Amino acid sequence: MIKVDPQKVIQHLQKKWKSGCPYCQESDFGIEHCLYNLTQAKDPTTLKKDDLNYVPVILISCKNCGNTTLLNLSLTGIEVFSES
Predict the structure, then answer these.
(1) pTM of the model
(2) Does a structural domain hold residue 72?
(3) Does residue 51 form part of some domain?
(4) What are the tens digits of pLDDT across the range 10-61?
(5) Do the Cβ atoms of 57 and 71 come closer than 8 Å?
(6) Contacts of 18 (CB under 8 A, 6+ apart)
(7) Helix or strand or coil: residue 66?
(8) Contact in structure between 67 and 22 (CB atoms under 8 Å)
């Protein structure tokens, strides 16, 4: 299973989301430790493996209002690791 360090995600959010949650401005987040992939088919008529693009994302939830969003890890520089 691929994982991320939630502290690094929180540090990233504190730098980029200066006022906290975009909706309620609170800064108490739940960070999903597991990495997910959004899959985009280059050709929507096929699902061949070579025809897919992947976007690595994690889920972030505001513990105050429940706003849940995806964070694209490929744009953050946050390291991922494999749990053996």
Answers:
(1) 0.71
(2) yes
(3) yes
(4) 888 888 888 889 899 998 999 888 888 887 766 666 666 665 677 889 999 9
(5) yes
(6) none
(7) coil
(8) yes
Say if residues 33 and 6 touch (Cβ distance below 8 Å): yes
- The token pair that represents 23 in the structure block: 């909706």
Domain annotation covers residue 83: no
In the chain, the number of structural domains is 1
Instruction: Say how far apart CA 8 and CA 76 lie, in whole Å.
Output: 10
Q: Which amino acid, one-letter code, is at 59?
A: L
**Separation CA 30–CA 67 (nearest Å):** 10
Could you tell me if 49 and 42 are in contact, meaning their C-beta atoms sit under 8 angstroms apart? no
In a domain, 84, yes or no: no
Whether 64 contacts 28, CB under 8 Å: yes
Range of the domain at 11: 2-77
